[in-house]
Structures are given as structure tokens and as C-alpha cells.
Amino acid sequence: MLEIEILGMLWLLAITNRNNYDVGKVADTGWKERLLEGFKANLSLLRRPGEKTYTQRCRLFVGNLPADITEDEFKRLFAKYGEPGEVFINKGKGFGFIKLESRALAEIAKAELDDTPMRGRQLRVRFATHAAALSVRNLSPYVSNELLEEAFSQFGPIERAVVIVDDRGRSTGKGIVEFASKPAARKAFERCSEGVFLLTTTPRPVIVEPLEQLDDEDGLPEKLAQKNPMYQKERETPPRFAQHGTFEYEYSQRWKSLDEMEKQQREQVEKNMKDAKDKLESEMEDAYHEHQANLLRQDLMRRQEELRRMEELHNQEMQKRKEMQLRQEEERRRREEEMMIRQREMEEQMRRQREESYSRMGYMDPRERDMRMGGGGAMNMGDPYGSGGQKFPPLGGGGGIGYEANPGVPPATMSGSMMGSDMDQVNCVLKTSEEEGKEE
After folding, report:
1. Are 113 and 124 in contact (CB under 8 A)?
2. Which of 218, 360, 405, 411 has its CA 20 to 30 A from that of 92?
3. Which residue intervals define the domain RRM in the entry (predicted)?
4. Per-residue pLDDT of the chain (440 residues; tens, 9 = 90+)
5. Any bridge partners for residue 209, and if so which?
6. Taking the complete model, does pTM exceed 0.70, yes or no?
């Protein structure tokens, strides 16, 4: 309902302008100003949800402008269609460009202002050529508008990206990408022409070409046809059907035959191209599966190599541990042998020291000592009274060891004193041997 109301206001304004005023002259009527204000308030509602504003699709070409037109007059011409985003005027050639907020507003302005008189001239309003638009083809059936825009946004800001579909909504494999600037479109065209740009998993490159822009809305009106002599000659005869057997009919048939041959050849070429594409897709699918199998085999070989290398590292580590354990065991045995050898040496040294100490102290062998022991039970002691049976002469002035040499000392006390002194000397020798063994 709101769109119908807006279109009704537009129609009323258009009729008022055409019947009473020249475009560019503002009528001094209160009702028209109020109508215009209400119309401006609802202009934003003509935008589609998510539609970008002030794009190249909203840019109008205005031709046949008066030579003395100013920029302010040019803006007032489009004042009721919202705030313009871009204004350009070439007074010398009598044309200009203006960019409006949305495509719907541009279409309304074009419909209203085209062929409108202004200072004795009929204005010519057309949509400006989109110089930053590219045509893309060889698209996969699974490419959508959003994917197409996302893919080409790496080259620069995009105003519109659309995949062309047939009457059933199926992709035709073709699309249009409209950039916001020419450098971005040029960059995309060069990169895609020199390289291979893929949009999906299938290795199917996108073919990019400059968009061939055709005007299928306004076409060629009679007022714009060139009225040259050839035009006059061709228009002498009205439209008709050629009569059978006439000159016109014969050559018309030849034209139709030529067109039929072109059609057949085009169909044959299209069929050959379709067969070639199907064959290429089949080969590509087989090669893709083989490629995936090769990748799996390579990955398996890589994993096996990694596993073998890990096993080698593990074996090397185990070998190092075994060698370390063997070295530790060998070191332990060597230390034990050294300790045993050192202990035997210490025992042997102690034995030699005891023998040497016994030799220095004049100790005899126990058997020899027993043989030399007298009946009185003391060594080197004969008759305590100096009888003739004494084996050894007494030492010193008193005569022998014992009671005779030390009168006044009891025999038991004297024997115990000698044995205690000997034991002290033996203990001293043993202690010295132990200390020497510890130092070694």
C-alpha cells in the first residue's frame, strides 16, 4: 500500500510538472510543497533490505542540457528524489551525471525526467554505463551470489554480485560482478586472466571478461534514429510479406538458409563443446580420485617412515640404556675387585707387620717357646737357687731373669709385668697397621 501511495504522489507531481511548469522551475504553491515534503520522507522506504546506496547502478546520464545550466539548477532538477551523492556537469558538451540513493529512485527519476523540456531542449535521461562491471562465466552450479561476492571482494569493494539463472532458477554458469571503482575491476580482470582463480573444490577456473552492456530497456526510439539518406531509402517501403517467386522472396530465402546454416553450425559447436566439457569433467573426476589416492598413499608412507624412525630412536635409546647398565655393572665389579685386592693387601701388610714386630721384640715360635720352658713354668728360668741344672747363665750381676736378678720382687709380679708390656707393643703395631691401611 505504501509503494502504491508513493507512486501515486509521483504520478501527481509528474502530471503537475508536465502540464503547468517547465522542469527546474519551482511552483509557489503550498500544497505542492507539502506533497513534496511527504514524498521525501518516504523515499528511504523504496530501498530493498540490504541494498547498498549510492552505487554505480544508481548513476544517471543526463544529456541535451542547456549550455548555461548551473550545478545548483542541476541538483534542483533531482531535488525531490533525495540527496544526490555525486554530481558532474560538462557544460561544453551539454551532459552531466548524477548518483542517487537507490536504484528505485533512479528508475523513478529516469521515468519522470526523460524527454522533459528544459529551456527549449528535450532532456535525455539514461542509466550511465557501469565501467567497473565484469562478466564471469564457467561457474560451478554450486556458486551463489554470496560466494561470488566473497570471492571477488579481495580485489576491492563490490557493489553487486549476481549469478544469472534460467526460468527455473538454475544457474546458467554465468554471472556479473560490479565493483565500486575501475582500479578494482581492472585488478580482478588482470589477476584472473593471468592466473587460475577457483571458487570451489573442483578445479574449474573462472573466466572473467569486461561486461558487454546493452540497453534492452529504452532501445532505439524513433526520435533518436539517424535521419540520413539511407534511412529515407529504407523507409520508402512499409513492412510486408514477400510474395512467392519474386526477387524479394528468392533472396529472403537465401538469407534464411544462411541463418539456418549458422544456427546448425552454432548448435554443432555447442554440442561439441558440451561433449568436450563432459569428457573433461569425467577425466577430471577420475584424475581427482587418483590424486586423492596418491595423497593417501604418500601420507601412509610418511606415517610409516615416521613410525620406523621412532622405532629406531627407541631402539637406540634402549641400546644406550643397556650399554649404560653394562658400564655401571662393570664399574661396580671393578670397584668390588679393587676393594677385595686392597683388603687382601691390607691383611698381608698387617701380617708382615706382625711378623716384623714379633721379630723385633724377640718373640719365638710357640713350639720353640714350649720346648724352652722349664719345669717351673717360666721361660728362661732354671733352678731358682742357681743349681747346676740351669741352662742359661743369669744376666747381670745377680745372675738370671726372675727372682734371682730382682730380689724382693715376687716371681708372679715380674712375669705379669713382662707379658703386659709385650701386649701393649702388639696393640700399638696393630693400630699403626690399621691407620696405614685406611690412608691407602
Report:
1. no
2. 218
3. 58-130, 132-213
4. 444 445 455 554 444 444 444 444 444 445 555 555 555 545 555 667 777 888 888 999 999 999 889 999 999 999 989 888 889 999 889 999 999 988 899 999 999 999 899 998 899 999 998 889 999 999 999 999 999 999 999 999 999 999 999 999 999 999 999 999 999 999 999 999 999 999 998 888 999 999 988 877 788 888 878 888 998 888 888 998 999 989 999 999 999 999 999 999 999 999 999 999 899 988 988 888 898 999 999 999 999 999 999 999 999 999 999 999 999 999 999 999 999 999 999 999 998 888 888 887 665 555 655 665 554 444 444 444 444 444 444 444 444 444 344 444 444 444 444 444 455 555 555 566 556 555 54
5. 135
6. no
Gyration radius (Cα) of the chain, Å? 63
CA angle 346, 348, 354 (to 5 degrees): 100
Question: Going by DSSP bridges, is the β-strand pair 171-179/158-165 parallel, antiparallel, or unpaired?
Answer: antiparallel
Q: Distances from the Cα of 12 to the Cαs of 16, 27, 101, in angstroms?
A: 6, 14, 22
**What secondary structure letter does DSSP report for 172?**
E
In one-letter notation, the amino acid at residue 372 is: R
E-strand spans in 257-318?
Answer: none
Q: Which stretch of DSSP H or E encloses residue 370? A: helix 366-372
**Closest residue by Cα to residue 62 from 43, 77, 52, 48:** 77
Residue 46's contacts (CB-CB under 8 Å, 6 or more residues apart) are: 3, 6, 102, 104, 105, 108
Name the segment(s) of the chain with CATH classification 3.30.70.330: 41-129, 133-210
Cell (9 digits) for 428? 700399638
Q: Which fold has domain 41-129?
A: Alpha-Beta Plaits (3.30.70)
